[in-house]
Amino acid sequence: MTSEEKNIYFNVAIATSLVLFGFDGENLRILFIRKKNEPFKGGLMLPSGYVSPSESIEKVVDKLMEKYTQVSYSFTEQLKAFSKVFRNPLGRVINVAYYALVKLDEDLLTLSKKRGEEWIEYSQIPDLAFDHNEVIDYAKERLKRRVKRRPIGFYLLPKYFTIAQLQKLYETALNREMDKRNFRKKIFNSQLIIETEMVDALSSRKAAKLYMFDADKYQKLSLKGYDFLF
Amino acid sequence: MTSEEKNIYFNVAIATSLVLFGFDGENLRILFIRKKNEPFKGGLMLPSGYVSPSESIEKVVDKLMEKYTQVSYSFTEQLKAFSKVFRNPLGRVINVAYYALVKLDEDLLTLSKKRGEEWIEYSQIPDLAFDHNEVIDYAKERLKRRVKRRPIGFYLLPKYFTIAQLQKLYETALNREMDKRNFRKKIFNSQLIIETEMVDALSSRKAAKLYMFDADKYQKLSLKGYDFLF
DNA sequence: CCAAAAGTGTTCGGAATACACCCATGA
DNA sequence: TCATGGGTGTATTCCGAACACTTTTGG
């Protein structure tokens, strides 16, 4: 490549946007922030950042995660590159988008609210800055596929959860209702959840048993090409 | 963004690589070219190109397709962005890789050979320049998934094909053997192939019937959230 | 006449689906 | 006492998997 070509081609910026999914026990939600400056000032957008040429994209994603969730580890995966030529008025920007799953507990909700961020319901996403609607549609499809084949739902739930909560999560993500009995059969068959001695006495009259995810078992099953299918 | 920040961030290049799958009737193959200049001069690599800031990536992919296959339309899909910081000695380059499926007929094989390109068997991929091995591994996984759920195999076969050819394609892509009777049952059940009056008298003693893909039927089924599953 | 590939049905087991009632408890 | 959500079992259907022999024909 000549230095002239170098001048032409090395003239693009990388950005990354994060579709952060959280589950409040009832609904799946996605985190949005308000854009602080032009273009699209005041508009809702996904948490995003530019990536410097010497930095890895994953690093920037991790920084976004830390900033917005204060969670050290979670499930994160690249969606794809969004690269329409007109995306950003400042110049050509490639947006390599990611999604992540977090436990959306009271603490996190409070923190986000204090900062003026919003967790918006999965099915109620408004019009967004840039091409973020397209990114979110893509992320929803990916989540649907993943949730069907891998027990990633457990990243979204608190450590101890009831079967009803788990079912509600699946129903929201897959956008269909399921039969309670069949759901239990399937979940218990998977051998991936452990019954605890605890109950959730708050959210219902008859206290529901609390379960937890069996991470060890999952590791073992994953190794032998495990197939979970909803 | 200040102009100083602009100088820092807008300093990256976009490239794209194409994993071009072809099926020769027996094996799945991927197209490789030989690198003409440093770095990695003489090494095998995927067909690739830089993307100028004013150009869409799809356009560059289309140009690659045209150059290497002379096919006007085929199945093409983005894989993801490969973006390791050290990828390319010239500077930070984001590789937004794609894969595509083509009918690998005699004409194309001859053309490629004349140009010094190689169609290498799916399971025999050697060490490649850059991170192209990683790209290919990812592409294979994607193909596996797609082939299971959508009849994209038809992009790889000639217009008229035998059931045996189709089965061979599935077996290669999914890397497992299948039962002839069960395979036929499934394929015919899908309602997506049409029997023709023709037979393939060349490749076997007892001439095999030729079939073709029912594109109209596929359109209609796709609309109602069709699910094909291997 | 025989090697090589084409073509064809049945059985079995496991998973998905559909479906309805009793239980515990806080208000 | 009753409204609310928790918890349980069975019958049916459908799909995938396993499995072996006959047919055609070029050499």
Protein architecture, described:
The structure is a homodimer of 230-residue chains. Chain A has 230 residues and is α+β, with helices and mostly antiparallel strands. Chain A folds into two domains: 140 residues, Nucleoside Triphosphate Pyrophosphohydrolase; 72 residues, Orthogonal Bundle (Arc Repressor Mutant, subunit A), CATH 1.10.10.10. In chain A, 36% of the residues lie in helices and 26% in strands. Chain A contains eight helices and nine strands. In chain A, strands 1, 2, 3, 4, 5, 6 and 7 form a seven-stranded mixed β-sheet that branches. In chain A, strands 8-9 form a two-stranded antiparallel ribbon. In chain A, a hairpin with a 7-residue loop joins strand 8 and strand 9. Chain A starts with a helix and ends in a 7-residue tail after the last helix. In chain A, 29% of the residues are buried. The mean pLDDT of chain A is 92. The interface between A and B is medium-sized, with 30 and 30 residues. Chain A binds a DNA duplex (27 and 27 nucleotides) through helix 7.
